[in-house]
Amino acid sequence: MRLVRTLALAAVVLVLCALAGGWYLYRDLAGSIGTSHALGDNAPKSVGGDTNILLMGLDSRKDQNGDDLPPEVLDKLHAGSSDIGGYNTNTLILLHVPGDGSKAKAFSVPRDDLVDIPGHGQDKIKKAYGLEKARTEDKLAAQGVTDKGKLETAGREAGRRAEIETVRAFLGVPIDHFAEVNLAGFYHLADALDGVTVCLKKPVKDKYSGADFPAGKSTLNGRQSLAFVRQRHGLDGGDLDRTRRQQAFLASATQKLDSVGTFTDPVRLLNLLNVAKQDLVTDKGWDLMSFIKQARNVSGGNVAFTTLPIERFAKHRGEDVNIVDPVKIKQIVAEQTNPVHSTPPSAPEGSPAPSKAPPAPAPPVIDGGGIPCVD
């Protein structure tokens, strides 16, 4: 499900391209979407005009206020009850937008990578948000805070900070901006796009996600889209195959944003803006108008995707995890975001040679046309 919310995040970023000539719409959008101070004023920044955006998708069946999503919405999402999911960031993608207008790059971080989480030791990278949110709320409750809204707001801000810090340390690059959305945001956006075309190599039917699609191309509505990117049962590579599906879906969706005239269709654009207001949270300091100048090379599907590698599978506190090589991860990201000036980190002396990694899914690379077929 990691791309479920990420589609909403990336698409809303792309929609900003259409607002360059509409100051009123931009002002209305900027004043209405949720904002956060979690990034921090003193956070490291990219240089040379580049921008790194962390796209975080919460596996949460709750709205921005911490209230349960309506039962009818949960039923459409085929996502179970509001007690499922917690506050794990099951979608983590770093979107690198070069300042020179060259191809954007998207790095998918597998949700079960075992990493260092500040203040919590080693755990799955997806848990940083929820662990810190819970700890912060417990501390405030012990101090006598009982207001649900205050606890939710403080907990989410702490969770965002923890997730950003964890990903930044893991990837070794600055994070200039972030965007966050939950399941409902994806559903609303997918319907606002009037369907997204995907392609499967073979038919699938999965009772857990609700996926039921024929081989070949299909145009999916919001409910079907969620099922498509959530399915992992019945896929040979499990989560890794699901990551490739999500990447293919995102590539197709961003391409459609540009190809069907979304940026010039007032009704479609208004629908997307309403989704942004309802479901999106971004960092307070993001100057959206300045980013518009960079964002056009993300539309039309012009994005190269990379799934960051894992070394092997293991158990940690009774849970399945991905063992990763932090040095290798940093080197891959550095080489692809700044191949001339970056100095990849070196492994400590005496470090063991990495074990053979499980096969990673081949990423879809869409250059203005074509729909990749996936498993």
Automatic annotation (TrEMBL):
Residues 336-375 are annotated as: Disordered. It holds the Pfam family LytR_cpsA_psr. It comes from Streptomyces violascens. InterPro entries: LytR/CpsA/Psr_CW_biosynth, LytR_CpsA_psr. Gene3D superfamilies: LCP protein (3.40.630.190). Residues 355-364 have a biased composition (Pro residues). This is Cell envelope-related transcriptional attenuator domain-containing protein. Residues 88-257 form the Cell envelope-related transcriptional attenuator domain. Belongs to the LytR/CpsA/Psr (LCP) family.
